[in-house]
Specification:
Layout: H1 2-6, E1 49-55, E2 71-78, E3 86-94, E4 101-109, H2 114-123, E5 129-130, E6 150-156, E7 163-164, E8 169-173, E9 178-186, E10 201-207, E11 214-215, E12 217-222, H3 240-251, H4 253-256, H5 258-265, E13 276-282, E14 287-295, E15 300-307, E16 315-320, E17 331-339, E18 344-351, H6 360-363, E19 382-389
Parallel strand pairs: 8-11
Antiparallel strand pairs: 1-10, 2-5, 2-9, 3-7, 3-8, 3-10, 4-6, 4-9, 12-19, 13-18, 14-17, 14-19, 15-16, 15-18
Length: 392
């Protein structure tokens, strides 16, 4: 799925919450040091669990990769020192520099791909490496030929604390697994200038598990973003092709191709400009859905994930009617839902170009036709579901 490689800004970790997100921030909100971003104390350990505290090996001061733009994605490798298999049942990301922390992704690299990660780390000067679109390591990413080299195990975004399910389930980590900790730094608040160092930390909740422990996976669902300039806006980037060219310049061809690829994958013959976009994803393998998380950027208004819409078996799996970037939450389903081949999962997002005039960081940027992109001034529509595959 396109989201696996394109999504380098998602957000999925939090205190699991069944309630809807709070109302969108009022006009003029700065989206600076996120008011809802406090990680808080860890939830109590449950029977058989233990904490493992990890930290970036070195502090890093982000800067735009090409000297322009306002976003950088940086990956650092962390060795959790696992000598036996364990299940990751909870993750708590603790960003140090909240002023510029847009999101963090956590990947678990399979032992057989660890050497590729070590090689990547060694050949790039300084802490870690640039990693738009995933781990940034060919052969050790979440998709590719054969078995994926890494698992996407958690994401932090403003408002998120610890991602924790009620069920006996976790991401299985084999001995020798490495962690790639990806931080997306948003430099809009500093006009693209360096904003001090960051050395974020990570707390893993581990258990040995039992034969009954379910193995978790991340199942991403995306829809296009095709948000034209408002009626009273104009400028070169209000042209879709020019906007895609700008995204490509900032983040590379793979991200730049996402907008057109999403239109094709969602069965549309051409882009459909508008505030609301939707995409149906056909389920190919049986799985159990436990929770979901909706992610957009600053122009996001609402996001919903539905199962088999328009049929007698229709069910809403995720509903965030008032999206708030500064308070993103993983929502547990009231009870797990079984889905399988022949089922449809629909994701729907609504964005609002009018919010651009209300946010100080966006007001100073030229108007643009907004498409999917890795930058804070770009947009996404991402429903990120926490699932467990079933054999039948």
């Amino acid at each position: 799925m396109a989201l696996v490689t394109a999504f380098a800004v998602a957000a999925c970790g939090s205190d699991a919450d069944n309630s809807a997100a709070p109302a969108a921030p009022p006009a003029g909100v700065s989206h600076g040091a996120h008011a809802g971003a406090s990680v808080g104390p860890p939830l109590p350990l449950r029977a058989g669990e233990r904490f493992l505290d990890l930290k970036m090996a070195e502090a890093y001061t982000p800067a735009p990769p090409d000297g322009s733009g306002t976003d950088e994605y940086r990956c650092q490798v962390i060795d959790p020192g696992l000598t036996k298999a364990a299940f990751l049942t909870g993750t708590q990301v603790m960003p140090e520099n909240l002023d510029i922390a847009h999101h963090a992704l956590v990947y678990a690299v399979r032992p057989g791909k660890a050497a590729l990660v070590r090689e990547q780390d060694a050949k790039v000067p300084g802490p870690g490496w640039q990693c738009f679109g995933g781990t940034g390591v060919e052969g050790a990413d979440v998709e590719g030929d054969g078995e994926p080299g890494a698992m996407w195990v958690d994401t932090w975004a403003p408002g998120a604390t610890e991602a924790l399910l009620d069920q006996d389930a976790g991401f299985k980590l084999e001995p020798g697994t490495l962690i790639i900790f990806q931080m997306h730094y948003n430099l809009l608040t500093t006009d693209g200038k360096p904003a001090g160092p960051d050395r974020s930390a990570l707390r893993l909740r581990l258990t040995d598990g039992t034969p009954q422990t379910r193995e978790l996976d991340t199942y991403p669902l995306d829809a296009p973003t095709e948000l034209p300039c408002a009626a009273d806006e104009s400028g070169p980037l209000c042209d879709r092709a020019a906007s895609i060219a700008d995204v490509t310049k900032r983040f590379g061809a793979e991200t730049g191709e996402t907008a057109d690829r999403q239109v094709e994958e969602c069965g549309q013959s051409a882009p459909k400009p508008g505030n609301t976009q939707t995409c149906d994803h056909e389920v190919e393998e049986p799985m159990t859905v436990f929770a979901g998380f909706g992610h957009m950027h600053w122009l996001g208004r609402s996001i919903k994930v539905e199962l088999n819409p328009g049929t007698p078996r229709a069910e809403v799996l995720l509903d965030v009617p008032q999206f708030d970037f500064d308070n993103q939450r993983l929502q547990k389903l009231p009870s797990p839902v079984e889905v399988g081949p022949g089922d449809t999962l629909r994701v729907t997002c609504t964005h609002d170009a009018g919010l651009r005039k209300q946010l100080p960081q966006l007001k100073k940027l030229p108007p643009r036709y907004v498409v999917w992109g890795d930058g804070t001034s770009d947009e996404m529509c991402a429903g990120i579901m926490r699932v467990s595959p079933r054999k039948s």
